[in-house]
User: Fold these one by one.
Assistant:
Number 1:
Amino acid sequence: MSILSPQALELNRLLKTQSETVYELLSAKGKAIYFPKMGILAQGSAAKGKEINATIGTAYEDDGKPMILPSIASKLLLDTKDAFPYAPSDGLKPLREKWMELTRAKNPTLGKTEISSPVVTCGVTHGLSMVGYLFADPNDQIILSDLYWENYDLVYSNAYGAELKFFNFFKNGLFDIESFGKTILSGPVGKKIILLNFPNNPSGYTPTRSAGKAIIQVLKEAAEAGNKLAVVLDDSYFGLFFEEDTMIESLFAELSQLHQNLLAIKVDGITKEEYAWGFRVGFISFGIKGGSKDLYRALEEKAAGAIRGNISNVAHPSQSLYLSSLKSESHQIEKEHNIAKIKERYLKVREVLASHGEYKNYFEALPFNSGYFMCIQLKDLNADKVWETLLNKYSTGVICYSEQKLFRIAFASTPARQIEKLFNNIYLACQDCSNL
Ligand SMILES: Cc1ncc(COP(=O)(O)O)c(C=O)c1O
């Protein structure tokens, strides 16, 4: 990396004095990035409210309103000022404040713990990518479960040259805490990046309360041993919990106050939580034990700089639309309605599996209790052949992980009335293929 800008150096100095851990966790790109406060943005903001403002890269009418095309504006109920001009690189301030308030409400364990303000990203994928930018150097290992969202390959390996290192997810129908511990605690003490996604894609698993405690204990041990940990929490499916003993708060709540050697990074968004897949609004929040306002401001600025250098800023209409939806009295009821619908499908899957003992001849479910998906593990069958038969003979599509002989079933997108048929079709396709 070439010589660092004075603004990056200043942020680094601040981070280093506030938290050696956070500074050490930064990648080379993360150390070099800064949010340009001088230059165009600063001069543009200095000119705000002046009689003549000839600084800005947005066209305005003579009366100061954004210069828009009515054929676009007429499709929106939003005021043109809330949709057409650029949003700030770190996101709309009221949206960030609201998301922070919601994060605290959904995770009461956070209490008044100081955490960063959420920085707005273009969906969760972009948030994860910005975390890679800030923390992952080429050949850094990222520790995660061996069942994972495949896009992590592109986000972390292709884009930043990081290496994914897996722990075994399940053992005897439970979270394999031994493998998790071994993977994290083995090897030399130093920087470690851990990526946890609960509810998990593809398995639909969220730790039970006791598994959650055990995970936290392992991370605590690793931090106490002197490791510097960046624990990334992909909370895309947060809130879709269907069983009593599931951990219903994000691990972020405890991890952000666990140890000075552990930086918790929560990446979440409105994509699944608010049923707004195409809106592309996500958030990155940081938390570390004893983290100060100055530390978080520096991290937020680094994140905003990375965003500025990648996509400049996130779509303004999406942010405003979601923000205004929160003022609606029916918003929460609408959400609960959708969760209930997905839960009904989840329960139907459980009922169908429980009432068809014969399925066990060909497949068994992996642990699942949350989210959009569940997986079945095929026994002694060629998964590709079953998948093809299922598609062509039974007109049924699922996602096949050939090597692991797994099918991922998206119950969240399947009407409850089709679920029995879906599993029966899988059973029949297995039967067909076992007779080959
Ligand atoms: C585990 C996980 N993380 C992130 C994402 C991406 O979210 P977004 O669409 O907001 O980029 C998905 C989407 O399928 C996902 O399953």
Number 2:
Amino acid sequence: MHQSTSGWDHGLVGQSQEIAAIRRLIEKASANRLPVLLLGESGTGKEVVARAIHDSNPRGQFVPIDCGSLVGTLMESELFGHVKGAFSGAVENKRGLVELADGGTAFFDEIGDLPLEMQVKLLRLIQEREFRAVGSLQWRKVDLRIIAATHRNLNDEVAAGRFRLDLFYRLNVFALRLPPLRHRKVDIPLLVNHFLSDGQTSGLRGIEPNQELFDTFDAYDWPGNVRELKHCIDRLNALRSEGALQMADLPSALRHHRDMRGLEQLYGAVGFSDPAAGGLPDFAMTPKSPVISLPESERRTISQALAATHGERGKAARALGIGRTTLYRKMKQYGIE
Ligand SMILES: Nc1ncnc2c1ncn2[C@@H]1O[C@H](COP(=O)(O)OP(=O)(O)OP(=O)(O)O)[C@@H](O)[C@H]1O
Ligand SMILES: [Mg+2]
């Protein structure tokens, strides 16, 4: 799909400048067969971009290779194949993932987890475009595009001796960094609608996202990035009652965050400058006294937290970042009911 207005190009949803820049880089990358390195936090869409680069100029197969799962003695054979009799159990010739990707794209996911002894073989594959199956003496030529991705900081990995500098240089020629979702929150509504319609195509009845939902999503930092947002929508799709959206269906991390927001809004509503606002005369401030004592400010904060959480002490304690017992003790100390 290539409808630039809808933000659907390459299956990469988003209307932020950051996504626009990524789309331009995908176009550039697809014009040649140089290795590409995709960096970015977990869940930012590295695999989506890898597939987009392949799909922009589709040749051969897209073969994902999970470097983290390549462990033990079979790893080399998984990657490069083996010949009959190479080791006990090698009863016939077997092709590896690299051969499968010949003519297409090999996607080395979590390249930072690739063991050092495999890194040297990957370097040879990139530089000489050849590999050798386990037990074979023959070097085989291949023509493939290599895309690698990692959420790790490869500079740190190099410094720690876990990643080869020469391989890093080779991969880093065309590096593309995926920004975290919290730096491009304008993309959230499009992504929400995208994931909602995904849910509908798999037979779920649609939910109506409302402003409260978008506000909550906008206030949250999404440490798990787009994947976390997708899971959240999947969960809402699965849990919603009668098509109506229940805030209680949100994952607890978001709900907790929302309580914090409620607190902030309350702070704003009660207003240190507007004593009449908020209908909570107990902690309306006199504008003439900009400084209040620490115990007094603590008393007010606790009262506000209790008001914001409708007296739910557990929630209030969490929002305040203190334990329940501490909250009770302080309530008693300040005579708060
Ligand atoms: N821009 C986007 N548009 C649509 N879907 C997206 C986008 N970015 C991410 N996704 C979706 O979010 C999920 C996570 O994306 P992906 O697997 O590409 O992330 P990743 O960077 O590879 O994460 P990890 O490092 O954890 O493997 C997938 O379901 C993917 O389809
Ligand atoms: Mg991934």
